[in-house]
Amino acid sequence: MAYVITEPCIGVKDKSCVAVCPVDCIHEGIVESNGTSYDMLFINPDECIDCGLCQPECPVEAIYADSDLPKQYEHYIQINANNFRK
Questions:
Q1: What CATH number does the domain located at 3-83 have?
Q2: Burial class (CB in 10 A: 0-12, 13-18, 19+), 85
């Protein structure tokens, strides 16, 4: 399991979550997918240790455990992963 950053982060990129991540797996980037540009922070699913420290730090409530994602944000699992497969 990993945490996933979703739509509310687009254009915000507060970075409070970055400061508390013990494994430095949260990075800023831009992903193009299906004609949409996602300019936001991303969590590397291969490095995330599922500690959950990032979630309460997000001021726009954009971070979810991948198992708890609201249906409308499920595609963000792949969007986050795509940022690290360049």
A1: 3.30.70.20
A2: exposed
